[in-house]
Each structure stands twice: as structure tokens, then as C-alpha cells.
Amino acid sequence: MPPMFRRVLRAPGRLAAAIGRSFNPVVWRRRGLIAGSATALVALVIAIGVLGWWWSTEPAAFDVRANAETMAKENGEQVVTGYVTTATLIRAVDTLLHKPGGYLYNDMLPPGVLMDNMPSWEYGALVQMRDLARAMRNEMSRSQSQGREDPDLAQAEPRLNFNANSWLFPSTESEYKDALNYLRSYRDRLADPDQPDAQFYARADNLRAWLEIVEKRLGGIAQRLSASVGEWRVNTDLANSPGAKQSTPTSNEVHAQTPWLQIDNEFYHARGACWALLHFLRAARVDFSDVLDDKHAGASLDQVIRALEATQRPMGSPIVLNGGGFGLFANHSLVMASYISRADAALIDLRRLLQEG
Q1: How many CB atoms lie within 10 A of CB 30?
Q2: Which tops the pLDDT comparison, 231 or 68?
Q3: Distance between CA 120 and CA 174 in Å, rounded?
Q4: For the segment 189-231, what is each residue's pLDDT rounded down to a tens digit?
Q5: From CA 128, how far away is CA 279, in angstroms rounded?
Q6: How far apart are the C-alpha atoms of 159 and 130, rounded to whole Å?
Q7: Is 221 within 8 Å of 339 (Cβ atoms)?
Q8: Cβ-contact 99, 59 below 8 angstroms
């Protein structure tokens, strides 16, 4: 029989065998396992994406005076000098730890390990918390330069300076929670008339010392944001310093450019820093009100606050754009740098008023 006829006669049998295999329970179980695994994988990816989007939500601003009054009412205390600043720092640290997703900077699992914008926001805010805690320990709680430091602030400040990305033994969160407890203890002692050893001295020199640190922080942030487009700038490291020297020579012009993959990180670092600083300055406006009025410096501080408020406007774009300065697309980093530079310039005037006014 010719081969062609043999193939024709075998076709029904092959078809029947294929149908039989397709209805084989083992085959169906394998196909179900593959389909179920694929469905579970897609669902997991979607869940991680939604969770990451939720965790990326920036914390809302809060009223520093209302926050202090609420804390005082809950603890049966009076709002005394320094209470608003301390309560604001406590609220900021608590927000860092307990916002949606908690503290993400040290996360080792998804979606936290896959995120970079919110961890950058956290670190920017954390730096401002560290600076204020250091100023409170070294300046605001001491009567004079040789005065005794407050024991609670002496414990809180180094814990806030603990490694920001330690996830085990001890974890960063555990250290920051301890710092939070010490800050609460200082707040309670501050409001207790029977514990006069806990003090907050709202003096012009104390405020000026902290603002000097803030001024440098804002200047550095603005410089990194401006470098998003890459620029050659004149080296001013030794400007206005006759006879000054530096360790190694550098060129007269310096090229500064933020790496492309770091642009959004620098932007959200600035957002977080300005969020925390905005609340701290509002608190200082309350606790140092007499000093500011005496120096006629209240309007200058209000101008700093107004400039920082602009940095917290909602983003109208899902991504941080890095267009040219006068290009077709926006450059969010340059806009942020503009607001921060305005705040920094107002800070210089404010510090001058506090010193000479």
C-alpha cells in the first residue's frame, strides 16, 4: 500500500489518541497549575504596585499649634515655652515611623526595596529632625555655653543619628522609637513646674545657631537640584577669605551635574527636608515670638515659611521631569531650587536681624 494511503488510514487513530491525551487528568492538572501560577504572579505584581503607590503618598501637613495643644490636653499639661517646638519634633518623628508603609529607608522586601522616592523623602526629613534635635541638646536647653545638657535630649539626639538603613540588630526603627520616648519624657518634664531642671531657652542666639545650620542645608540642597541640567560654575570655595588655603588645589571652574538616575531622588529628598523644616519653623515662630518681635524679624521668618510652603505644592506630573531651563518640558528640580534659594536668602536676612536688630 502506498505511504500516502497508510497515513490517511492512521489519521483517525492519531486524532483519537490526541483527544484522549487532552482529557487526561494529569495533563489538566499540569495546565491548571501553570495557569494558577501565572494568575497568582500577575495578582502579586498588581498588589505590589498598588501597595507601592499607596506607600508613596507624602504625609500631609499639620497645624503645629493645634498639635501642641492636643498633646498638652491628652497629658494634662500646659503649653509652655518650647513646648510647641518639642511637640512638633515628636509629631515629625512619629510620622516618619508610622506613615503608610512605616519607615521604608531600610526595607529589604518589596515593595519598599523597589522604591526610591519615598525613602529619599524620609532621609531629607530625617536630616532636619537630626539638626533640630542637636540644636535643642546643645543650644536651646542650655542656659549658657557651659550649662549642663538635658539628660533626655542627650539620649534622644544620638539615637536619631543612628544608621538610617540598619534593618536588624538593632533596627533603625527601634532606635528612633527610643529617641521618641526620650523626647516625650523631655516634653513632659518641660511642662512640669516641679522639674525646673528641664528648660527651653528661647533666646536670639539659640535660634540663630540653629538657623545657621538650616541655611547651609538649604544651600546644599539647592545646589544639587540646580545641577540636574549640568553646569559649569566658578569655584568660590576660598572667596572673600584673604590668606585662606585648602588641602588640595582645584580648578577655577567646577562642573556639577546630578546623575540622571539620581534626579528624582534629589527632588524628593528636598521635598522631605522642606516638609520637616516648614513645620519646625512654624513652631519656632510660636516659641520665639517675643524674640522675633523684639528684633523686628517676624516678617523675615514669615517670608522663609512662605517660600517653603511653595515647595509642598502637589505634583502635576507622575514623574519628575528634567527639561532644559528654557526648554519645551518643565524642569521640576530647577523650580524646587528656585523656591529653596528664596528661602535661603530670606534666612540670611533673618540671621542678620537676630544678630544686629
Answers
A1: 11
A2: 68
A3: 20
A4: 999 999 999 999 999 999 999 999 999 999 999 999 988 876 6
A5: 10
A6: 9
A7: no
A8: yes
Length of the chain: 357
Residues 118 and 220: their CA atoms lie apart, in Å, by 20
As given in the structure block, the three cell numbers for residue 205 are 542666639
Dihedral, CA atoms, 131, 222, 335, 55, nearest 10 degrees? -40
Question: What is the residue-wise DSSP string for 215-264?
Answer: HHHHHHHHHHHHTTS-EEEE--TTTT-TT---SS---SEEEE---GGGHH
Other CB atoms within 10 A of residue 10 CB: 10
Q: Domain coordinates of the chain in residue numbers?
A: 1-55, 62-234+252-356
Cα 127 to Cα 225: distance, rounded to the nearest angstrom: 17
Distance of CA 121 to the CA centre of its chain: 3
Inter-axis angle of helices 263-287 and 83-98, to 10 degrees?
150
Using alpha carbons only, what angle is made at residue 239 by residues 217 and 273, rounded to the nearest 5 degrees?
A: 5
C-alpha distances out from residue 32 to 18, 21, 44, 167, Å: 19, 15, 18, 39
Residue 139 DSSP label: I
Q: Is 66 helix (H, G, I), strand (E, B) or coil?
A: helix
Which residue has cell 501565572? 38
Residue (of 134, 299, 293) closest to 212 by Cα position: 134
The burial class, CB within 10 Å (0-12 / 13-18 / 19+), for 260 is exposed
**Cβ 186 vs Cβ 86: under 8 Å:** yes
Q: Which residues contact 212 (CB under 8 A, 6 or more apart)?
A: 351
Under the phi-then-psi rule, with left for phi > 0, alpha for psi from -120 to 50, and beta for the rest, what region is 102?
Answer: left
243 backbone φψ class: left, alpha, beta (φ>0; ψ -120 to 50):
left
- Provide CB contacts within 8 A for 290, sequence distance 6+: 202
- Cα 350 to Cα 357: distance, rounded to the nearest angstrom: 9
Instruction: Bin 255: left if φ > 0, else alpha if -120 < ψ < 50, else beta.
Output: beta
What are the tens digits of pLDDT across the range 69-86? 999 999 999 999 999 999
